[in-house]
Structure formats: structure tokens, C-alpha cells
Amino acid sequence: MEVTLTTWAITLAAIVVLLIVDFVVTRKPHEVSFGEAAAWSVFYIAVAVVFGVVIWLSAGSSFGTQFFAAYLVEKSLSVDNLFVFAIILAQFAVPSNLHQRVLLVGIILALIMRAVFIAVGAAALAAFSFTFVLFGLLLIWTGIQLARHRDEDPEPKDNAVVRFARKRFPFTDSYDGSRLFTQVDGRRMATPMLLVMIAIGSTDLLFALDSIPATFGVTQEPFLVFAANAFALLGLRALYFLLKGLLDRLVYLSLGLAIILVFIGVKLILTFVHEQIPSVPKISIGLSLGIIVGVLVLVAIASWWKTSRDPSLQAHAGRLTGGSDDDGDESGSAQG
């Protein structure tokens, strides 16, 4: 796919403008209504659809399909991100009127980390085709672990980076708006917001380790990988408030995401094998898109059916290792 510097510049400029708009919207802390969240969600989905249509018309249907498949993968995995964000906000007792700003900072950190991983991943794939196998094995391991621990939640409050920050800085017990540091009796102290940002940032790093290989599994075009990640993440703030009341009902989401990750992992390995032995078929992008959509639809229907029969059931984000009772140290989240 031929991508000019002008195309990159226009895309990056559009993303920056959208982030500025988000900063303006979240500048004044306020409770987000369902209507506001729905309007912003529709807007960001529309932006992604328009972008995909432009790719389809200008670069061809193959690249257009690849973008939509990559966007769908990132959008579905981002729902699991929301579980962990919700856990972080609850564990650190973040005031509800500050949720928007925390989510926005989390999105910006995620964009930066994903840009770095995309650059590294694209270079590795171009220089060393066996990277397809390494990415595939990583996704298969992640999917299996997520399926094994699908009924658990991560403990962001107890991760190593947060523990280090607690030892490094003196902290106040209360928030001071969105400030990371404040003055107490003339002494500079960190607020709990700093711990929240550290937890969000370290979680974003773990998410990037899985989501980038997953996106490369449906398209090897760095531009499409970056665009799919960016547009999926930009709508994450609004999606959180839109789905906040539904997250606990998606009881099969972690299992569904585990299946998707394993499937994409197998697809990546077959891509490498096909390059070495052309007679071995690889999984087409159309089939990939169909399977991903099918799994997500089944997750939604099965979750609705299960929770309608047992309303006491509660969904979990999942994690990649056992709980602290098993191994004594912090665990990874279900990355998206």
C-alpha cells in the first residue's frame, strides 16, 4: 500500500484535532449522561467508517476490508480495556466527575505506546518474517491464559510500578482535582491521581503487547494498523460511559476475546508457513472478518441469555496469570 507523507500528516493532524476536542470537552469536570456518551460514540464510529470508506475507494477493497477488520479487532479488544479502566477507577476511588480526564490521559498514553510498538513490529516483520510465528505464539499463549483465568480480575493497585511510586513519593489521602501534585502545609506531595495515571500507563503497556500483534494478524500495513488503533482508542472515552452499565453483563467477553486471539495467532503462523510453502493455504481477510464478527455476536447473545437466567452473574476482565494467592506477585490484565 502506497502511503505518502502527506497522507500520514493529514491522518496525524486529524487525530491531534480530535484529541484537542476531547481535551476541551473534558476541561470542565462533569457527569457524563447516556445521551452525551451515545452521541460521541456515534461520532467516533462515523469518523472510522468514513476513513475506511476513503481507504476502500482510494486504495481498493482489499485494503478497505483490512482496515475494517483491524478496526473491529481493536474495538472489540478495547471493551476489555474498559473493564480494567473501570477497576482502576474503582480501586483508587476516583471521583466520578474526574473519570473523563483519567480516561483521556489513558487514551493518549495508549496511542503513544502503540505507535512505538507498531514501528518496532513493522520493522521486525519486514526484516525477519519469522516474527509472524513469534507474534502468533504470543497471541495463542495470551488467548489460552485469558481463557484459563477468564473469571478473575487484575489488581492494578498492587502492580510493581504502583508499589514503587508509593515508596518514592509522599501521598495525600484525597484528590485535588486532576492535579498530580499538590501543596500540604508547604510540603509538595503527590495526590492519588498520580497512582491512577501510573496504573493506567502500565496497563496500557500490557494492552499494547497483545493488541498490536493481533492487528498485524489481519493487516501487515503499518498505516492501517496505526489508523485502526487510533480510531478505536479515540472512541474509548465515550464508549466507557455508554457501556458502563453493561460491562458487568458481558460474562462471556473474556472467553470470546480469548478465542479471537488464538484464531489470529493461528492465522499469523499460517501466513509464515504460506510464505515458505505456497501450497499451504492462508486464512483470507474475508474469512477472518466473518469469524471475528461471528464470535462477537455469539458473545453478546450468550451473555444476554446467561445473565437473563441468572441476574447475579458478573463479568470479569480476565487476567494472564493466576491470582496473588497462587503466585504472590502482580498479575497482568486481559490485554486488548
Chain-wise SSE layout:
Elements: H1 5-26, H2 34-59, H3 61-91, H4 99-127, H5 131-148, H6 160-168, E1 181-184, E2 187-190, H7 192-216, H8 222-234, H9 236-243, H10 253-276, H11 285-309, H12 324-327
Helix pairs in contact: 1-4, 1-8, 2-3, 2-8, 2-9, 3-7, 3-8, 3-10, 3-11, 4-7, 4-8, 5-10, 6-7, 10-11
List keywords for this structure.
single chain, mainly alpha, two-stranded antiparallel sheet, 2 strands, disordered C terminus
| Computed structural class | mainly alpha
Largest sheet properties: 2 strands, antiparallel
Number of strands: 2
Sequence of secondary-structure elements: HHHHHHEEHHHHHH
How many domains? The number is: 1
Account of the 3D structure:
With 336 residues, this protein is mainly α. The chain has one domain (5-319). The protein contains twelve helices and two strands. It has helices spanning 5-26, 34-59, 61-91, 99-127, 131-148, 160-168, 192-216, 222-234, 236-243, 253-276, 285-309, 324-327; strands spanning 181-184, 187-190. The protein has a two-stranded antiparallel ribbon with strand order 1-2. The longest helix is centred in the first third of the chain and has 31 residues, at 61-91. It is globular, with a radius of gyration of 20 Å. It starts with a helix and ends in a 9-residue tail after the last helix.
Short précis:
The protein is mainly α and 336 residues long. The chain has twelve helices and two strands, in the order ααααααββαααααα. Helices cover 70% and strands 2% of the residues.
